[in-house]
Design brief:
By secondary structure, this protein is mainly alpha-helical. Helix content is 84%, strand content 0%. Helix 1 (3-42) packs parallel to helix 4. The termini are far apart. The mean pLDDT is 87.
Length: 155
């Protein structure tokens, strides 16, 4: 596969992965909002932990799906001998860990640099998503604690 083909195919898979990631986060928002409403009513540690855990779980699922997409393309391109090696290489590349124990051939290496770019971009998005979620949860938790303290002072 030539350089231009690798870059075009890799960019296409990157876009598919970005769409998967953004879609899962967007689909999670109504669920997180409902959980947030329940958290506001209970304002306890457990409900805050559930809300943050659900957000975290959704990001894990999104990243896992993307690694599977990259592994599937590796198999389709016949650049890996089996599913285990395809998944391993995809995960190591996606996380930019890059052990180097499995190295793609010259005919596919530029393609897989885009798997690393996908990981960088979507991990950044996940971080922003989780920071925003945790900030809102902590703000609601702090507001509820302040309200309880104020009620205590009034009585």
């Amino acid at each position: 596969m030539g350089l231009i083909q690798q870059l075009l195919l890799g960019t296409s898979v990157l876009c598919i992965c970005a769409l998967i990631h953004v879609s899962l986060l967007a689909l999670a928002l109504p669920l997180l909002m409902r959980l947030g409403d329940a958290h506001r009513k209970r304002d306890n540690f457990f409900s805050a932990a559930v809300l943050i855990s659900v957000g975290f779980g959704i990001t894990v699922v999104a990243h896992t799906l993307q690694v599977w997409v990259w592994a599937a393309t590796l198999l389709l391109l016949q650049a890996a001998p089996n599913l285990e090696e395809a998944l391993y290489f995809s995960l190591v590349t996606y996380t930019t860990l890059g052990y180097g124990d499995i190295v793609p051939g010259v005919e596919i290496r530029m393609y897989f640099t885009l798997a690393a770019v996908t990981g960088l971009l979507t991990f950044g998005l996940s971080t922003a998503f989780l920071v925003g979620l945790i900030t809102k949860v902590l703000a609601k938790y702090a507001d509820a604690a302040e309200e309880r303290a104020h009620r205590k002072d009034v009585t």
